[in-house]
Amino acid sequence: MKTNLKEGMNGTSYGRFLRLMVMMSAVLLLLGSCLEGKKEQGVDTAGTLIFPADTKASPEYNTGEVYVSLLKESGNTMIAHFIFKPNSRNFWHYHPDAEQTLLVLDGEGYYQEEGGEKRVIRKGDVIVTPPNVRHWNGATPDSSIVCMTVTEHAIENHAVQLRAVTDEEYD
Fold first, then answer.
1. Taking the model in full, what pTM does it have?
2. Which end of the chain is less enclosed by CB atoms within 10 A, N or C?
3. pLDDT of residue 118
4. CA torsion angle for 170, 141, 24, 37 (degrees, to 10)?
5. Which residues, at least 6 apart from 3, have a Cβ–Cβ distance to it below 8 Å?
6. What is the rounded distance in angstroms from the CA atom of residue 36 to the CA atom of residue 19?
7. 5-170 — its CATH code?
8. Which residues contact 93 (CB under 8 A, 6 or more apart)?
């Protein structure tokens, strides 16, 4: 039986879906061809990553060493590239009325939604967090994780930061 994805969506939703798929495909193709190199703490670094993440993220919303670069922060879409060093993670947070797609580019880490089990995430995983869902993610104790997030939102107040992930939640 054939199904038509477009039949289940209105025109605006289908158009947004197609734009997001094209953008994510292009990013993944580009990254796939450029993430080659030596292993360092479980992450292919190629000496320097295609998208450098050399700005240390604020300890106000992160635990441990987290690096970030904003690749796009205009219009209604933000694309960010993160490196979480071993034992690091972001705080519990949510994205008001905005879905977020997390693409794991390398390494191993954790992801958890409020009320759900913490799960291990690895290179190649794609996690779609629905709007307004409280969640966190970060590296495992033994590996860094490299990820990219695509969030559709209004640039201001794109994330509401809640609290640090406790050691009990992380371990």
1. 0.73
2. N
3. 97
4. 180
5. none
6. 28
7. 2.60.120.10
8. 61, 134, 135, 136, 159, 160, 161, 162
